[in-house]
């Protein structure tokens, strides 16, 4: 079981690395880095936790906290980086079909800075 989690973690991490290299724009790369790498590291940490618990007989709560911290911070970090890239003018890929955030940004600009909640 530990070997399976290690193998899955390695596969997801390699897929994330390939995605970061091959995808055409920053938004796709952020998606690859935050989704695939999160699942890869999760499986690696889970395999490590199971090894220490089942083989060595030690319950390591820090690994469980690491898994929880990773699930909380990776999606939030990816979202914040993507939003900052969009607000600073990084263009979407030519293959992008729809820009949902453009309407929201335009509506907020029309309302003015005092009429909406801070981000």
UniProtKB/TrEMBL annotation:
It holds the Pfam family PhaG_MnhG_YufB. One of its GO terms (molecular function) is sodium:proton antiporter activity. It comes from the Bacteria. The chain crosses the membrane at residues 6-24, 36-55, 67-86. It is found in: Membrane. GO terms for cellular component: membrane. Its main location: membrane. It is a multi-pass membrane protein. InterPro entries: PhaG_MnhG_YufB. Keywords: Antiport, Membrane, Transmembrane, Transmembrane helix, Transport. Belongs to the CPA3 antiporters (TC 2.A.63) subunit G family. This is Na+/H+ antiporter subunit G. It comes from Pueribacillus theae.
